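R.M. (postdoc): so does anyone remember the format we settled on? I'll just put the structure tokens first.
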């Protein structure tokens, strides 16, 4: 890195983040930041903006900010979400097991697939479609076993709010005695 290169966008961003952080902590104010910039000269003229700094000057300014108490914390990048690759054979075996527990045959599962607007034969369905049929059969199995799937708590709260709104009287009365007959 040669010392005469202009500051890059990453360094400008770091300078502004450090400045904002130190101003929020009360260590620095806008006027003292401008005085710091004026100490550096490019072409014999004092610098008025961080984008006019040279790289070595920006490094020195960032080192000064670190001495003042600023700590650089890099952003943590999230790992990309990998789409799960589904295996059709595994889903077909699971569907067969559930059908055996329910006492149904393959036509029952194909009927569920047709209700879901999937192909008429399970062999023609994609792995994701087979997974959805498997979920539907699992719900049916739980329902028959007396253990139906329970809605999430936030869904229950929304249902209670809707039913409270429907049960409210149009006249604004809260008790039966308040309703004029």
């Amino acid at each position: 890195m040669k010392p005469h290169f202009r500051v890059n966008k990453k360094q400008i961003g770091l300078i502004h983040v450090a400045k904002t952080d130190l101003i929020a902590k009360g260590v620095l104010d806008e006027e003292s930041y401008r005085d710091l910039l004026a100490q550096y000269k490019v072409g014999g003229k004092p610098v008025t903006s961080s984008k006019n700094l040279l790289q070595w000057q920006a490094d020195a300014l960032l080192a000064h900010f670190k001495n003042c108490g600023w700590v650089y914390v890099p952003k943590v990048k999230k790992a990309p979400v990998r789409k799960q690759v589904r295996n059709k054979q595994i889903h077909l075996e699971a569907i067969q097991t559930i059908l055996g527990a329910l006492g149904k045959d393959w036509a029952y599962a194909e009927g569920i697939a047709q209700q879901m607007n999937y192909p008429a034969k399970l062999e023609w369905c994609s792995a994701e479609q087979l997974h959805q049929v498997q979920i539907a059969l699992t719900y049916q199995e739980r329902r028959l076993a007396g253990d139906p799937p329970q809605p999430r708590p936030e869904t229950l709260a929304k249902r209670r709010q809707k039913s409270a709104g429907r049960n409210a009287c149009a006249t604004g009365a809260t008790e039966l005695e308040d309703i004029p007959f």
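R.M.: ...and that's the designed sequence above, right after the tokens. Also worth knowing: The longest helix spans residues 127-145. Helices lie at 9-25, 30-38, 55-67, 88-102, 106-115, 127-145, 153-167.
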